[in-house]
Design goal:
71% of the residues lie in helices and 0% in strands.
Length: 202
């Protein structure tokens, strides 16, 4: 069941996530549009103590403190939310992929009129979309200051849901026909024997 009313933080993908604007160095970082680069460079500075710009040990304790202050508070909260959403999305995507593949294996060879190729194509399309979105989320985590767009999966999910409903209806009709066939067969056999007995009485 798809909950169209549930609100997801879509604005997070559109949001330019940068650091604390109150830090002195913030103006330069944002003017040069290098928030993501500076964030990545922090690990390099911690490991080597060398400035990524000039490749010399020119990074002062005060500058390190400004970098840390820039990427604190709201920035850390937004990144933590991104990480949580990526884990949640990946978990859902993997669970959906497992269940759809199990469903596809189950419908293969069913004695009903079903275009399995269409079913398979829709599932492949859906899983491809989910994997594409996961790649976008990973890219957003790597470059939080960039704007990204996720593709909506609602339309293809509804198509698959309709195929499943249609398949279930066909299975129900088939099972009803099989049950009726058993009853009709028993009735036919009884009538045949009745006819044979009647014929032998003549």
């Amino acid at each position: 069941v798809i909950d169209k009313e549930k609100k997801y933080p879509k604005e997070l993908w559109d949001k330019v996530i940068v650091g604390n604007k109150d830090v002195n160095i913030a103006g330069l970082i944002e003017a040069l549009n290098m928030s993501d680069w500076v964030k990545a460079g922090q690990a390099y500075i911690r490991e080597t103590g060398i400035c990524p710009f000039c490749q010399n040990k020119t990074i002062t304790t005060e500058l390190k403190a400004q970098f840390e202050a820039y990427f604190s508070g709201e920035y850390e909260r937004q990144i933590a939310l991104l990480e949580s959403l990526e884990d949640q999305y990946r978990c859902y995507a993997e669970s959906i992929a497992t269940k759809l593949n199990q469903l596809l294996a189950a419908v293969n060879g069913l004695p009903i009129e079903l275009d399995v190729a269409v079913f398979e194509a829709r599932i492949a399309e859906y899983l491809s979309l989910l994997n594409g979105n996961l790649a976008v989320i990973s890219a957003k985590r790597a470059e939080p200051s960039r704007v990204f767009k996720l593709k909506s999966s609602i339309a293809i999910a509804e198509t698959i849901a309709e195929l499943i409903v249609d398949t279930n209806q066909k299975i129900d009709r088939h099972n009803t026909m099989v049950d009726n066939f058993k009853d009709e067969r028993a009735s036919l056999i009884a009538d045949i024997w009745g006819l044979v007995i009647t014929e032998n009485k003549v």
